[in-house]
Amino acid sequence: MAVIRARPWAVACFLLPALLLLGALIVYPIGYSIQRSLFDASGSTFVGLDNFQDLFTNDATRKALSNTLIWIVVAPAVATGLGLIFAVLTERIRWATAFKLVVFMPMAISMLAAGIIFRLVYEQDPDRGLANAAVVAVHDTFSGGAEWPDARPRPNGELAGQEDGSYLLATPARAGEPALLPLVGVKPADAEGAAEAAPAAADPGAVTGTVWLDFAPGGGGAPDVIDPGEKALSGITVEAVREDGSVAASATTGGDGTFSLPAEDADGTQLRLAASNFTAAYNGVEWLGPALVTPAIIASYVWMWAGFAMVLIAAGLAAVPRETLEAARVDGANEWQVFRRITVPLLAPLLAVVLVTLMINVLKVFDLVYVIAPSSSQADANVLALELYRSSFGGGANQGLGSAIAVLLLVLCIPMMIMNVRRLRQEKKR
């Protein structure tokens, strides 16, 4: 203190470069943004608070504001919670260092690179997108899809399409007269492993028939005729339908495409290929659709920042007195009670720091949303930082509105800054 009082000019010389940088990089941009937010898009006409009014009345900015609030509430809480769980669990595993390294590794990836990675992860095509590949694999394990979803009858043939997606044969079925149910539309590659179609045997005591792919390799053959080399469509459900629409009997085609229905039930009915035969294969979840795009992007953010939270919390956990934890266990507390009533309260100041840090960080999220969300659903995933860019430098070219969004982001940061300042003061008092 004596040095400061004796040589104030020396103190000023040391502080001057920092103050100049602070003014040039922080104070001046904030002041200019506030001033610019009071003018129109061209910057020549003073409009007062009109830009802020537009911010809360424009559908795009209101959606961006609501999504930003979702980010502030969900993303930091989930990342901090996972970081806490990982930090506690890594104390009990042998390969704790390796586990921490793997979890923390995404922090080394830029937001842009992470966005590209998760754009591929969330790809709709299960053959390309990892998330849908896993979902489809699990779904198909418990509920198999239709084997021939692309099959359909020839135009103007005897098989007519119905409203429910089934196909009905116009000619009534007769016992002893094998029915022909030809279909097309199946890719030759999909039917490559199928057996050759065989004509059904004429049985006076049954209604028989064949369902097959009416397409001969090389393009030869006649329509509605089972030609050599044409493939059978196995697993097709064939129903005998009465005039009132009720199903009298049903059968499934075998490996050679043939089926058989009892004559006492099926004679005189109409044969129908059930709609379930042509249900499109399950294609997974539309991760980047309007409903799930924001949770999907938040998940990618948590993947990146959970490691950051884990490392900070693990450092704080290492400073927790082990005697306190052991004393609680000796007194009969189980691990959940030790975690909830001792570990978490002791880590509460650190958890607050991590939570506030991530809350400030999510206000600046731009890259992930811009890269991951496709153009069709980017408006549904919009956040304030992205809307600032779109308004100022995108199609809107309205830097007045963009500056108003920047001022709003600053206002949203102020409560978090106040929380940090109060926490620092409390730490100094201790």
TrEMBL record:
Record's subcellular location: Cell membrane
Keywords: Cell membrane, Membrane, Transmembrane, Transmembrane helix, Transport
Protein name per the record: Integral membrane transport protein
One GO CC annotation: plasma membrane
InterPro entries recorded: MetI-like, MetI-like_sf, UgpAE/MalFG_permease
GO biological process, one term: transmembrane transport
Principal subcellular localization: membrane
Species name: Streptomyces xiamenensis
Membrane topology: Multi-pass membrane protein
Family in the record: Belongs to the binding-protein-dependent transport system permease family.
Coiled coil: none
SUPFAM superfamilies: MetI-like
